[in-house]
């Protein structure tokens, strides 16, 4: 009888792990689909009946919408893309009702780890959207939405860096790259210079480096244009207009 009970216990344990693995998979897929919503393409179709990828820089992101359709449409797209990262990490991740089905070797609690999985899936969906031939944006705004829930102070500083660089240079791509670089550097300096003792730092620093690398990778064409001096500047935001 004890052996039968033990067998039943392990059977239920394995069944629970299988269910939780399915839950993780569903969360990743749903987050990818949320990230895949091609906001820029939809807005461009509705506003002007065009494919945004055939205009401006050819990118399906907020920056190109700013350039082609103006600051109102661009602001909407950026906020919507940030929202995709937030929805994935704050709502879709809530579908995880039990412990994760694998050993958590990170300093994060299980739910935070699920949030990271959901957020990264949303970023991948934004970059390689299934709804538009796997040609999406660069993932900056969606990554920002996901990171707000994980490292809000670092995100705030990175946004400040983005704003300063954009105001000075008028290059959105340069601002994005500067923010991507500022994110892990801020975390490094806070932990090692200012002794902030960031919870989960040993994991977060590598995660932040990975996000930064991904952003630099998706901006590789912009980097080439910046080096050649052929990158387009933003000039349609009212703040930048000459009076």
Q: Helical percent range?
A: 55-70%
Oligomeric state of the chains in view: single chain
Which consecutive residue ranges, at least 5 long each, have pLDDT under 50? Answer: 236-243
Count of all domains: 1
Main beta sheet strand tally, sense and closure: none
> What radius of gyration results from the CA coordinates?
21 Å
Shape: globular
Question: Got a strand count?
Answer: 0
Order of helices and strands: HHHHHHHHHH
SS content category: mainly alpha
Give the mean pLDDT. 85
Number of helices: 10
Proportion of strand residues = under 5%
Distance between the termini: 87 Å
Structure description:
With 243 residues, this protein is mainly alpha-helical. The chain has one domain. The protein has 10 helices and no strands. The protein is globular. The N and C termini lie far apart (87 Å).
What distinguishing features does this structure have?
243 residues, 69% helix, globular, mainly alpha
Topology record:
Elements: H1 2-36, H2 39-48, H3 62-69, H4 71-90, H5 110-127, H6 140-150, H7 152-169, H8 172-192, H9 201-218, H10 220-228
Quick gist of this model?
The protein is mostly helical and 243 residues long. It is built from ten helices and no strands.
């Amino acid at each position: 009888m004890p052996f039968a009970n033990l067998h039943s216990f392990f059977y239920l344990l394995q069944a629970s792990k299988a269910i939780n693995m399915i839950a993780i998979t569903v969360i990743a897929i749903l987050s990818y689909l949320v990230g895949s919503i091609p906001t820029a393409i939809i807005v461009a179709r509705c506003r002007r009946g065009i494919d945004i990828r055939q205009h401006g820089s050819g990118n399906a992101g907020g920056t190109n919408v700013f350039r082609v359709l103006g600051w109102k449409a661009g602001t909407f797209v950026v906020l919507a893309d940030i929202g995709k990262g937030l929805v994935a990490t704050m709502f879709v991740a809530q579908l995880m009702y039990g412990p994760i089905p694998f050993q958590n070797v990170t300093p994060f609690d299980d739910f935070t780890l699920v949030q990271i999985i959901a957020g990264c899936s949303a970023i991948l969906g934004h970059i390689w959207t299934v709804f538009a031939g796997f040609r999406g944006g660069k993932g900056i705004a969606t990554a920002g939405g996901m990171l707000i829930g994980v490292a809000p102070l670092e995100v705030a500083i990175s946004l400040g860096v983005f704003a300063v660089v954009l105001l000075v240079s008028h290059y959105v791509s340069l601002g994005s790259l500067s923010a991507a670089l500022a994110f892990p550097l801020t975390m490094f300096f806070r932990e090692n210079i200012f002794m902030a003792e960031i919870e989960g730092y040993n994991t977060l620093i590598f995660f932040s480096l990975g996000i930064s690398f991904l952003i630099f990778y998706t901006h590789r064409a912009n980097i080439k244009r910046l080096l050649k001096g052929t990158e387009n500047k933003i000039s349609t935001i009212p703040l930048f207009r000459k009076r």
